[in-house]
Design brief:
The complex is a heterodimer of chains A (110) and B (248). Chain A is mostly helical. Chain A is built from 4 helices and no strands. In chain B, helix 2 runs antiparallel to helix 8. Classes of the chains: A mainly alpha (110), B mainly alpha (248).
C-alpha cells in the first residue's frame, strides 16, 4: 500500500466530508423554520419521478449494447420484472422473479 | 410531532415497535441487494489488504455503496486528499435531488432527522419516498427504521465479505440485478401515481442520452443539469397538471 495509515485516515475524512456536504446541503439551505420557496417545492414534487428514471439508467451504465451479451439479459429481466409488477403489483415478487430470471440468464444462457 | 414529549413512554415504545415491524418487509429488497453489494465491497477491501475492522468502520461512517467502492481505488492510489474530495463530491451530487425531494417529508421530525439525512443512500431514499405505510404507523419512525435496517445490512454485509470473502464459492453472478429490479418497480409505482409522466420520461431519456454522449463515469452531472433545466422550463405546464396538492 502506498499510503501511510495517517494519510488513509485523511483520505477517509475527505470522503466523509464530501458525502456529508452533499447529503445535508438541501436541508441546510432550506431549513424547517422557514417556508421553502415555491420553486423548490415544485422541484421536490416533480424530481422523484425523474430521479427513479436516472437510477435505472445508473444501474445499467456499464451495459455494453455493442459487445458481449448486448444487454439482452438486462432487457429480458427488466421486461419480466415490469410485466409481473403490472400484473400482480407485489413488489417483492416482481423484484425476486426479475433477479432470479437475470441470474439464470447470465449464468446459464449468455 | 410536538406532542411527542407528552405521550407516555409505554405509548412511545408501542409506536416504535409498530414502525420497526412495518418497516422490515419494506427493507427486504435492500437486504439482498445491499447485503450482496456489501459482501462484494468487503471482498474488494480484503483483497486490497484492508482489515475487516477498517472495512466495518468505513461502512459505519461513510455509508454509501458506490462512494465506498470508488473509495477503495482512492485509498490504494497515491495520497491526494483534494482529488478524493472532488471525486466523492461529484459522485454524491445526486443526493442534492434526494434532499430536495424529501424536504417536506422530513419536516419537523426532530433529532432523528439528522441520522435519516446521513443515511439517505439511493435505496433508502427510494423506499422512504415511495412506500405507503398504513395510517396507524408513524411515518417518521418508519423512515428512520428503513434507514437503520439499510445501514445494518450494509455494515454486516461488508464486514462478512471482509472476513469470509475468499471462502465463498457458489455462483452469485447477477444477484446485483436486484437493485435494478427494485428501481424498475419503484419507477412503475411512481408512474401509476403521477398525473403527468413528463418528469419520468425526462429522467429516463435525458439520463440515457447523457450516458450515450458522456462516459459511464461522467454522465450523472450532465444528466442532472439536463433534468433540472427541463423541469424548470416545463414548470408552467407541470404545475397546471400536478396542481397545488402536496400529496404524492
Amino acid at each position: 500500500m502506498t499510503m501511510t495509515f495517517k494519510q488513509q485516515l485523511i483520505t477517509v475524512g475527505m470522503i466523509i466530508l464530501a458525502t456529508l456536504i452533499m447529503r445535508f446541503a438541501p436541508f441546510v439551505a432550506f431549513p424547517d423554520n422557514k417556508p421553502t420557496p415555491k420553486f423548490i417545492q415544485y422541484m421536490g414534487k416533480v424530481l422523484p419521478a425523474a430521479v427513479f428514471g436516472l437510477l435505472i439508467v445508473y444501474c445499467l451504465k456499464n451495459v455494453n449494447i455493442l459487445e458481449g451479451s448486448h444487454g439482452i439479459p438486462e432487457l429480458i429481466a427488466i421486461v419480466v420484472t415490469a410485466l409481473l409488477h403490472l400484473w400482480k403489483k407485489q413488489m417483492l415478487i416482481s423484484i425476486s422473479a426479475g433477479t432470479i430470471c437475470y441470474m439464470l440468464l447470465v449464468q446459464f444462457v449468455f | 410531532m410536538d406532542t411527542e414529549e407528552k405521550v407516555s413512554f409505554k405509548v412511545k415504545a408501542k409506536i416504535l415497535k409498530r414502525a420497526a415491524f412495518v418497516a422490515f418487509p419494506h427493507s427486504l429488497p435492500i437486504l439482498f441487494g445491499y447485503g450482496f453489494l456489501g459482501l462484494t465491497y468487503g471482498i474488494l477491501m480484503s483483497v486490497n489488504g484492508f482489515s475487516p475492522l477498517f472495512t466495518c468502520m468505513m461502512s459505519l461512517l461513510v455509508f454509501g455503496g458506490s462512494t465506498q467502492i470508488v473509495g477503495v481505488s482512492l485509498l490504494t492510489s497515491a495520497f491526494d486528499p483534494l482529488n478524493s474530495f472532488i471525486i466523492t463530491f461529484v459522485l454524491c451530487a445526486r443526493h442534492i435531488f434526494y434532499g430536495l425531494s424529501m424536504l417536506e417529508k422530513f419536516r419537523g421530525l426532530g433529532i432523528k432527522k439528522i441520522y435519516m439525512i446521513f443515511g439517505m443512500v439511493d435505496e433508502t431514499f427510494s423506499i422512504n419516498y415511495s412506500a405507503n405505510p398504513p395510517s396507524d404507523v408513524d411515518r417518521g419512525w418508519f423512515m428512520f427504521f428503513v434507514t437503520l435496517y439499510d445501514h445494518i445490512y450494509w455494515i454486516i454485509g461488508s464486514t462478512l465479505g471482509a472476513i469470509f470473502g475468499t471462502m465463498i464459492n457458489f455462483s452469485t453472478e447477477g444477484i446485483d440485478f436486484v437493485m435494478t429490479a427494485m428501481f424498475v418497480v419503484i419507477f412503475i409505482n411512481q408512474w401509476q401515481k403521477d398525473k403527468s409522466h413528463l418528469s419520468a420520461v425526462f429522467g429516463l431519456v435525458l439520463s440515457g442520452a447523457s450516458l450515450l454522449i458522456f462516459s459511464a463515469e461522467n454522465f450523472i452531472i450532465p444528466a442532472m443539469v439536463a433534468i433540472f433545466l427541463a423541469l424548470t422550463l416545463s414548470r408552467k405546464y407541470l404545475e397546471g397538471k400536478v396542481g397545488d396538492d402536496n400529496d404524492i
